[in-house]
Every structure is written in structure tokens, then in C-alpha cells.
Amino acid sequence: MKRIVRRPGAFVCGIDAAMDVIGGKWKVLILWALNERTCRFGELRRAVPGVTEKVLSSHLKELEDDGIVHREVYAEVPPRVEYSLTPLGLSLNAALEPLGKWGRDHIYRGAAEAGAVAGIDPL
User: How far is it, in rounded angstroms, from Cα 36 to Cα 49?
Assistant: First the structure.
């Protein structure tokens, strides 16, 4: 089945185009899990707690269609399927790193401010 690709003019900006690929609660967590190593489906499910099999399967298919994830099927009994990031997926994770740093800094700043208000030294 061929994926329908939106025309470049259909997006408002680059962030809009990126969010079209990574939108949703689970896709970035799947990307981070695959950034660590190649995983089988069950390993991914354990690495992303709370995701259902149906949603994980759907997101993996969408990421594969977008060229972000590679699905390798091994002709073994029982069949073995492994998922890994493509070069495009690796570049997407590299682009997400500054956002992850911002998130960590924001969380720690909020915790430090809350401690200061309560009179607790965060360090």
C-alpha cells in the first residue's frame, strides 16, 4: 500500500511538517527507544509503558511508511521481526535532542522554583 504524501505547500511551516510525522503521545517515545538499539515488538512494548499493542503496531507502520523506521523480517521459525531507525529516523532523533534538553531543563527549573518557594534547598 502506497502512502499518500502531502505536498510541501500543504504545511504551514517546518514544525507543522515534523509534527505530521511525530504527532501523538507515543511516537517520540518509540523513536527514543529505537535510538538505544534495534528492538523486537515485545521489547518496544516494554520500553514504552502504557502503549497498547494496537497503537504500537499502528505507529510503527506509520513511522515505517514515513521512512523513519525500518522493519526487518527474518525467515525463521518462529518468525522474528526487528525494528530499527533508518538514517532519516536517526536525523529526526538528533533534531529532537534540543527539545528533550529544553524539557529536562524546564522540569528541573520548575522543581528548583518549587523548592525555593517551600524554603527547601534543591541541591
Answer: 16
| Cα 15 to Cα 115: distance, rounded to the nearest angstrom | 34
The one-character DSSP state at 123 is -
Nearest C-alpha neighbor of 30 from the set 88, 89, 73, 87: 89
Contact of 26 with 58, CB cutoff 8 Å: no
- Other Cβ atoms closer than 10 A to 47: 16
pLDDT tens digits, 84-95: 999 999 999 999
pLDDT tens for each residue of 55-98: 999 999 999 999 999 999 999 888 899 999 999 999 999 999 99
Question: Could you tell me which residues are beta bridge partners of residue 71?
Answer: 83
**Residue at grid coordinates 521481526:** 81
3-state secondary structure of 77: coil
pLDDT at residue 1 in the model: 46
Q: How far apart are the first and last CA of the chain?
A: 54
Peptide bond into 87 cis (omega under 30): no
